[in-house]
From TrEMBL:
InterPro entries, per database record: MFS, MFS_dom, MFS_trans_sf
Domain of life: Bacteria
Coiled-coil stretches: none
CDD domains (UniProt xref): MFS_MMR_MDR_like
Compartment(s) where it occurs, according to its Swiss-Prot or TrEMBL record: Cell membrane
Keywords: Cell membrane, Membrane, Transmembrane, Transmembrane helix, Transport
Pfam families per record: MFS_1
Transmembrane segment boundaries: 21-44, 56-76, 88-106, 118-138, 150-171, 177-197, 209-229, 235-256, 277-302, 314-335, 342-359, 371-394, 415-433, 439-459
PROSITE patterns assigned to the protein according to its UniProt record, in alphabetical order: MFS (PS50850)
A Gene Ontology term for the protein's cellular component: plasma membrane
Protein name: MFS transporter
Topology of this chain in the membrane: Multi-pass membrane protein
Major facilitator superfamily (MFS) profile domain ranges (all copies): 22-463
Length: 465
């Protein structure tokens, strides 16, 4: 990776027009993408009743979105570098908006699932393009740290907002509006992006996209994420599950060999040699896995063991939502004092304590004393981790590879989240009643401790600004 063409310095950033609008558009798009990860969860029974879908078909309404999102993020990031961040950002928004319209109008489960997959593909273009727009717009240091803090806060609260919004829309105008609400929002963001986002000055158009590399890594990631879903529901040692993991591994090994020989690799060798970037991604895999598993198991705990309704469950997460926003904003400023390494360690330690708190949850449980403290600790913990991970992953990255670095860290978010949820689902199924939930939260604590150890030992130089 060349460090001569770095991301904007403090003086270079002044040449970029409307940085506040760039941040607002990126955050609005990220909110829309993040909400749709969870917005269908509460609406699934209504979708099942309206479209007559079986349970095995219905799960694909959720899986299709995450599958395509996780599989194409890396390619979306690289396309942002080579074909233009603004262009890929707008293209992703257009795909996402059209897919949302199709999903809202769908009269057949198959069409709804296809539309959800198309939404995931659009989201895989939007997220790395939006993150790299922030990276090249704001100067490395406090300006970018604060921007990434807000972007991370939006991403962190989107899931909770999605659960609440799903309950309200399903109980009100109907489940179709969980998708149709994206249409006016998407059109508005597209119009503003077309009118006000500055065109990329210099693009790497002469470098061809590494199609063999893109095909193998996308196929490998798609199969890996699908294998995680399949294994959680059908058993980890079942022949189809093992075959899926073997096929995913074969494609990813082929990707590594292709990259080693390619004249224009999708992931240049210098990227792998950037130790802080690699450590941030490994830590992110574990951290996002722990957080999404915490939200998944926490939601099931409240509904299945504590008797909460779906709307009550969504409202109970507001404590986590609020603390994520506050901690992410503060964490972006604390990077200058503590550095990425120790901010990650502190955040993961708080998340571990919150998980361990729920290993002793009684039945019946009092929300204020048995659940709320854990939710607050988790919110503070991940609020610190989110911006630190993005700052660590983008520190010192060349401007021409900002999209790739963004795609990598977002891929770790999605794949790590899928792996975390699959792992704790298996633990929960193997357990019995409330003891199963307690064991699952203990496993989440193990994930966070592993992430903290890697963050503490892995960074060769703690990035500070």
């Amino acid at each position: 990776m060349s460090y001569l063409e770095t991301l904007p310095t403090r003086t270079e950033a002044t040449t970029t027009t409307r940085p506040g609008l760039v941040l607002a558009l990126a955050c609005a798009a990220e909110l829309m993408v993040g909400i749709d990860v969870a917005i269908v969860n509460v609406a699934l029974p209504s979708i099942q009743a309206d479209l007559g879908a079986g349970q095995s078909v219905l799960q694909w309404v959720v899986v299709a979105y995450g599958l395509l999102l996780g599989g194409f993020l890396l390619v979306g990031g690289r396309l942002s570098d080579q074909r233009g961040r603004r262009r890929i950002f707008i293209t992703g928004l257009a795909v996402f908006t059209v897919a949302s319209l199709v999903a809202g109008a769908a009269q057949h489960p198959g069409l709804l699932i296809a539309a959800r997959g198309l939404q995931g593909f659009g989201a895989a273009l939007i997220t790395p393009a939006g993150l790299s727009l922030i990276a090249v717009t704001f100067a490395e240091g406090r300006p970018r740290d604060r921007a990434l803090g807000l972007f991370g806060a939006v991403g962190g609260v989107a899931g909770s907002v999605g659960v609440v919004a799903s309950g309200l829309l399903t109980a009100g105008p109907g489940w179709r509006w969980a998708f149709l609400v994206n249409v006016p929002a998407g059109v508005a963001i597209i119009v503003l992006a077309v009118l006000f986002l500055t065109r990329d000055r210099s693009l790497d158009r002469r470098t061809p996209l590494d199609l063999p590399g893109a095909t193998t890594v996308t196929g490998g990631l798609l199969l890996f994420v699908y294998a995680l879903h399949h294994g959680a529901g059908h058993g980890w040692v079942a022949a189809p599950t093992l075959a899926l993991f073997a096929a995913a591994a074969a494609l990813l090994v082929a990707f590594v060999r292709i990259e080693a020989r390619s004249a224009f690799p999708l992931v240049p060798p210098a990227t792998v040699r950037n130790r802080n970037l690699v450590v941030a991604n490994v830590t992110g895999f574990l951290a996002f896995g722990a957080l999404l598993a915490f939200i998944f198991i926490g939601s099931l705990l409240m509904q299945q063991a504590l008797g909460y309704s779906p709307i009550e469950t969504g409202l109970a997460w507001l404590a986590t939502t609020v603390t994520i926003v506050g901690a992410a904003t503060a964490g972006a400023r604390l990077v200058a004092v503590a550095g990425v390494r120790w901010l990650l360690v502190a955040g993961l330690a708080l998340l571990a304590v919150g998980s361990l708190w729920l290993t002793r949850v009684p039945a019946p449980a009092d929300y204020a004393t048995d659940v709320l403290p854990a939710f607050l600790l988790a919110g503070f913990g991940f609020g610190l981790c989110g911006p630190a991970l993005q700052i660590g992953a983008l520190s010192g990255v060349s401007r021409s590879e900002a999209g790739l670095a963004s795609g990598l860290v977002e891929t770790m978010r999605e794949v790590g989240g899928a792996a975390g949820v699959a792992a704790v689902s298996t633990v929960l199924v193997a357990g019995s009643g409330l003891d199963g939930f307690r064991t699952a939260f203990a496993c989440i604590a193990v994930l966070t401790v592993a992430g903290a150890v890697i963050a503490a030992a892995g960074f060769t130089r703690t990035p500070r600004h």
